[in-house]
Amino acid sequence: MANTVIITGASQGIGKAVALKFASQGYNVVLAARQLERLETAANEVRSFGGEALAISCDVKQPEEVNDLVQKALDHFGHIDVLINDAAVYYMGPVEEASLDDWHQIIDTNVFGYIHTINAILPYFLERGSGTIVNVSSIGGLDYIPYQIPYTTSKFAVTGLTKSLRAELSSKGIHICGIYPSFIRTRLMERALFRGKDEETVQARYKLLDTALNSPLLEKPEDVAQAIWKAVKYQKKDVIVGTANFWTTAFHLFPGVMKPVFRRVFGMSDRYQSKN
Fold this sequence. Notes:
The chain is of the alpha/beta class. It is built from ten helices and nine strands.
């Protein structure tokens, strides 16, 4: 009997690459995201590997939709073995320019989206005495990065959620893994919030990230998918992906150099430079 994985944020980017990777390894795949048309396209690609795919439109901010997602997966496949949380919204701009609506959109998606799926599937995993939960965090969940504060706040929360879940649930047969990539060549722009003191600065931040995401130096979604597959297969706890190893090491070894660099790069025309 084939194993079954649920993947959120599965219509594109990392989530879609993960779906294809697990399908290639013989998994049944449940793809979840808000846009059903894109999900169905991704599901058809998954089916080309010969496995089963179930596309379910789901807004992870809505707990009732998440509960329905898990129940439909169980009804269709009879069992769930792995949950991979990937849905996220990115933010770039000064913290004072982030509205409460911005904060809610990011925290409700990036944190409560994960909490909702875990809350829905955990009773099943506990009753069965086994299961794997993978939370895709970020290098922003390891190092404090200026001008991305709502995003890094959410990713630090995911890191804490992941590590504390592991401390409690490992003895109950449930494996918890955290994945920490840097920027990845994905369609992140569609789910990003850019803020600034004026429209010129907002557009400059947009262009900065757009240029960065097209750099050949960045990892591809498939690189993260491979890291997630190995983490599940070999029961790894925390995986820092590719160039994220360089950045987090440099940040910890040379904070006096890296922090000003990050402020200049992401601050753009913002002149309120901290002395710390």
